[in-house]
Amino acid sequence: MPVKYLELENFKSYAGTQRIGPFHDFTSVIGPNGSGKSNLMDAISFVLGVQSRDLRSSQMKDLIFRPPGISAEDAKKLRAEATLVYEDASTKEEIRFSRAISEKGVGEYRVNGDAVPYKAYEDALGAIGVLIKARNFLVFQGDVESIARKTPKQFVELFENISASAELKEEYEAALKGKEEAESATIFAYNKQKGYKSERKSLKEQKEEADRFLALLEKKASLKTEYFLWQLFHIHTDVTEREKAAEELKAELREIEQRDSDKKDALANAKKKSSEARRSTAKLEKKRVKLAAEVDGLEQPTIKSAQEIKSLTKKLHTDENALAKIHQEEESHGESLSKLEVEIEEYRQTETQLQEEYEEEKQRGAGELPTLTEEQEAEYERVREAAAVAGAKPRQELATMNRKLSSARASAGSLANELKEVQGRKEEAEGSLRELTERQKTLAQSLDKTKTDLKTADTELRQIQKEAREAELKTRDIDTEI
């Protein structure tokens, strides 16, 4: 809405009533210094509600024009007034805004001649787009520099005054407070909803945990059932195996009892026979005891039998060497004996020849005893003694050789018997050794089989223990998860 004209009464340099105008879209005020250009601007500012500090005066009453020589009484009656007339471009209706100031500095606001309070006056100006606080109607001296020096906060205040948003401060603050309360309520509702979501999530997790717990309980029950079934299976297997072993033992016991019964029957028959043969066996008891002792003595461990066989073998070798030596001596003595026998036979032949000659001589003499000279008798005695001496030594050697031969034969027979006995004992010892070796092999095979079975059983036991540990670990894990 454009300004049409301005009416002044006793305002600063304008004495009396003055009407300035009309104003157009572009109006320039020119004049020399002191002609009232600035006062005209001050008057417009005064009408539009600007305070005295912006009107180049310290007090509002300084705006009143004082004629020269006016009395004090008349001066008290002076007042200044400025009226700015706006014209509506479409309706051509005028709106008059008036502001007056008395000598006492009391101000008065009028709209179309009606006195109104400052707030109503300000609202009326605001209705036509004039914002007093924003001062959007005039640019005062120094305003540009002042605007350039404003801080961001001051710029905001300026823009708020220009845009009239400052008037909405209370409403804005109330709305802001409502907004903050709404935001608080929203945050509270959000937090509450978040709490509900968190609680829902927690309840869902608890439900899932409960489901997992129930599943684990079922799994635990299943594992326990499987474990108990496994135990029952193995117990049943053990019972079956033990029952089978018991049946085998019972069968073996029955067989043993049958054999024992047979043995008892045989024993009874043997007792009957033994009662009949007791007298005949009394003499053989000592021999039986001796043989039993020898048999017990022969039932030695393998090492003792081997040592005995080694000793017997050594003794047998020694006896064989001794027997061979005796045979050599016997052969040697046989040769000597043959030589002696030959010599004895020669002496016997000589003696027989001599005896025959003696008999012939005796028969020729027809019973007449020959008469031997002393020399013949001496020769006869000498020959006789020589023959006796010559035959005595071979006879002694023959007797010695016969004794030695008899002794050697006796030793050879003894050694042969002892050799036979040693060979028999050796054969018995070898038989015992073979039996013990066979028993040792059987025991070794049984031991190997037992070791194999023990190793297999140990492996199975470890596997079972491993499975038991795994089952126990699973049970512990389930208990831990529960």
From TrEMBL:
Domain RecF/RecN/SMC N-terminal: start-end pairs: 3-133
UniProt-listed CDD domains: ABC_SMC1_euk
One family name in Pfam for this protein: SMC_N
Subcellular location: Chromosome; Nucleus
SUPFAM superfamilies for this protein: P-loop containing nucleoside triphosphate hydrolases, Tropomyosin
Keyword annotations of the record: Cell cycle, Cell division, Chromosome, Mitosis, Nucleus
Bias type Basic and acidic residues, positions: 257-266, 273-283, 418-441
InterPro entries the UniProt entry points to: P-loop_NTPase, RecF/RecN/SMC_N, Smc1_ABC
Gene3D superfamilies, per the entry: 1.10.287.1490, 1.20.5.340, P-loop containing nucleotide triphosphate hydrolases
GO cellular component: cohesin complex; nucleus
Gene Ontology biological-process annotations: cell division; sister chromatid cohesion
Major subcellular site: nucleus
Compositional bias ranges of the Low complexity kind: 405-416
Recorded GO MF terms: ATP binding; ATP hydrolysis activity; DNA binding
Spans annotated as Disordered: 257-283, 348-449
Name the UniProt record assigns to this protein: RecF/RecN/SMC N-terminal domain-containing protein
Organism encoding this protein: Ditylum brightwellii
